Task: inverse folding
């Protein structure tokens, strides 16, 4: 079973740590502790190293979630003092298994958490007028801070992007700045990653792309929500966004009357 | 104004400045590499055009131009991939582009016709199909079937039917399909679909380009 929160905080408070990797959205108390101690945080879900993905094949199958393959790639190549992996309902079973692997394979402590934070911090980035890549970058950067994301002015949405922050952000480049973000990315900004009601929320009046990483359990939810939405496109992408996926996004937005 | 659909195997060209414009077809490998057209779509288009329309948009606009119904499924079976758009109430409802699992199906069918010296216009649709996920893997299934004593023509016909059934399922198993692309000319392929098929021919994307031009849509200028 994963450690309880006080033990995690005890460890993070008592050990001399300088560089800690995080996976998913660990509880706010963990991030507050790391921030207070000025410990550098590395979001291992993001692309941080330019190493060959094939170097993870000893630890993970090739057919596996690209985000978690990236986590393992970062974990084995970055000089870290510890890793905190959230394995609660706000992440996934696959992360739980990756935590087991990393605990046994790495020489550094790997701490598991179950984040059930339910205090909403707000979702103003998700609803503001800004390039979608910039918005998503702000959200993913925000996971390393215990502070709210800021007060961005809302705009009227012309399109929607539902899903997790993709491994390959080039999927986001064709969307207009008036795209609103939904799904787990919105939960991430809100600092409530296990808020399933917020995760399934979407706007039925705007064309929306429902995205999930290939081999992620969220593909089922994305496909289900897309089927029930009147103007939707379900899209799953693995490591890289291919030309046909980009063309689908471009065509879906243009044929739905969305101006870029 | 010259429009072109630069497919993987064949390029379809329409010169609107001609008094009675008629599309022409040329093998893509025979294209002059310095050739330039005004507006184009297709897998190979970006190298040859001043402005580009992506293939799904061209297909959708072609359907709007050629199909006078609010609800329809338009499937394009080309040399390299499968694409479809589904309209409901005159609005785009769904779309798909299978460039990976649909890889090289059309190309493989043409290759097999030549290799086994077959005439698809005179071949009957077989009762059975080969389970086909892509052209390349399908070839192994054909040779496996032949080694079990199945005649070459029968094995290839089963493969062709497998591809048609695969395309039908990819498009969501509709009751009726409007068919576009090079495989429209393959009678065995068309007859192998387990649903009604309306053949629109090879120039649907050119019709889409014409419509896109008339709608004055944003086209994407090519660098350089």
Result:
């Amino acid at each position: 079973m994963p450690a309880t929160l006080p033990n995690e905080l005890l460890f993070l408070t008592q050990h001399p740590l300088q560089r800690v990797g995080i996976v998913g959205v660990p509880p706010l108390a963990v991030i507050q502790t790391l921030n207070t101690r000025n410990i550098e945080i590395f979001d291992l879900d993001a692309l941080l190293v330019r190493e060959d993905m094939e170097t993870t094949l000893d630890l993970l199958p090739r057919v596996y979630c690209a985000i978690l393959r990236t986590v393992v790639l970062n974990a084995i190549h970055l000089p870290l003092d510890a890793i905190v992996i959230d394995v609660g309902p706000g992440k996934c079973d696959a992360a739980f298994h990756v935590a087991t692997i990393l605990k046994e394979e790495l020489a550094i402590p790997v701490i598991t958490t179950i984040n059930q934070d339910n205090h909403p911090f707000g979702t103003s980035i998700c609803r503001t007028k800004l390039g979608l890549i910039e918005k998503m970058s702000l959200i993913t950067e925000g996971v390393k801070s215990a502070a709210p994301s800021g007060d961005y002015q809302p705009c009227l949405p012309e399109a929607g992007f539902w899903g997790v922050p993709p491994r390959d952000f080039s999927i986001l480049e064709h969307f207009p700045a008036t795209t609103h973000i939904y799904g787990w990315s919105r939960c991430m900004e809100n600092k409530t990653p296990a808020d399933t009601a917020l995760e399934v929320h979407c706007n039925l009046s705007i064309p929306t792309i429902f995205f999930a990483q290939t081999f992620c359990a969220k593909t089922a939810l994305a496909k289900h929500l897309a089927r029930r939405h009147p103007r939707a496109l379900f899209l799953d992408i693995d490591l890289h966004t291919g030309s046909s996926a980009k063309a689908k996004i471009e065509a879906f937005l243009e044929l739905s009357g969305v101006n870029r | 104004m010259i429009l072109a659909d630069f497919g993987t195997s064949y390029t379809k060209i329409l010169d609107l400045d001609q008094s009675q414009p008629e599309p022409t077809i040329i093998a893509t490998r025979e294209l002059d590499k310095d050739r330039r057209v005004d507006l184009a779509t297709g897998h190979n288009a970006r190298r040859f055009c001043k402005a580009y329309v992506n293939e799904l948009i061209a297909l959708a606009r072609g359907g709007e131009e050629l199909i006078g119904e609010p609800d329809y499924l338009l499937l394009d079976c080309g040399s390299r991939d499968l694409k479809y758009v589904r309209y409901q109430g005159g609005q785009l409802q769904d779309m798909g582009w299978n460039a990976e699992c649909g890889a090289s199906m059309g190309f493989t069918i043409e290759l097999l016709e030549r290799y086994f010296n077959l005439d698809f216009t005179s071949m009957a649709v077989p009762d059975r199909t080969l389970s086909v996920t892509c052209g390349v893997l399908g070839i192994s299934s054909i040779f496996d079937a032949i080694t079990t004593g199945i005649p070459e023509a029968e094995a290839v016909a089963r493969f062709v039917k497998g591809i048609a059934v695969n395309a039908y399922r990819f498009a969501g198993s509709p009751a009726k399909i409007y068919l576009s692309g090079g495989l429209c000319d393959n009678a065995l392929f068309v007859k192998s679909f387990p649903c009604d098929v309306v053949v629109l021919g090879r120039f649907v994307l050119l019709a889409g380009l014409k419509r896109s031009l008339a709608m004055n849509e944003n086209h994407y200028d090519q660098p350089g």
Q: What stands out?
A: Chain A has two domains: 5-113, 132-255.
